[in-house]
Amino acid sequence: MQGHRPTLLAGCLALVACAGELREPGPTATPPTSTAAVATPEAAASEPAPAPATTRRERRRRERGPTDGNFVFSHFSAGVFSTIIIQPATYFVATRVGETGHGLGPAIGALMLGAFLPPILNYTVQWAVGRTIAPGRDRFWPGFLVNQISHLGIFIGAVVGGADFRNLGHATAIVLGEAFLNSGLATITAELTRRPRNPTPTAANEMIVPVLEFKF
Prior knowledge:
By secondary structure, this protein is an all-alpha fold. Helices cover about 70% and strands about 0% of the residues. The radius of gyration is 45 Å and the shape is elongated. Mean pLDDT is about 75; it is low at about 30-40 and about 200-205.
């Protein structure tokens, strides 16, 4: 029995060791978390939304800058007053030309004067006043063409409708209608087609002047 004592002792120690291993649970394996799945909502929330693409019309409007109220008021007022003064004089001259001579020549000359001379004189005054307020800002041809087309529509309608330009009531209605309608359309066109404002100087165009410091 004494000879088997070391063997029994070794067996007892082995049983105790096995019981300890069974009693202490090993570390449980945690399922791997998806870093991409956790980081995706935060990254999506932190990323700025893409800026919408600007159209050509919005870009031109931004380049033109805000509306110049002084230019619009002066341009429109010049057109109204020039039409009230120039239009009756032009129609008077056209009527006198039509009454001189015989045949179709004087009548055709009077129609050509009445159809094309007033817009040239009226919009030239508007354009000159606009250049005085804002030099190099107003394009001539867009506003002039709109004024010319609007005047032709009113003039042809008055001639076909049998309006008498020697009648004070007919002439007053035609002149006032053209003064406000043609001048307003020309001013709106000049404002929408004006040249872009001068860009502000960037840092690349700045001049750096060195400063020397002397110590005595």
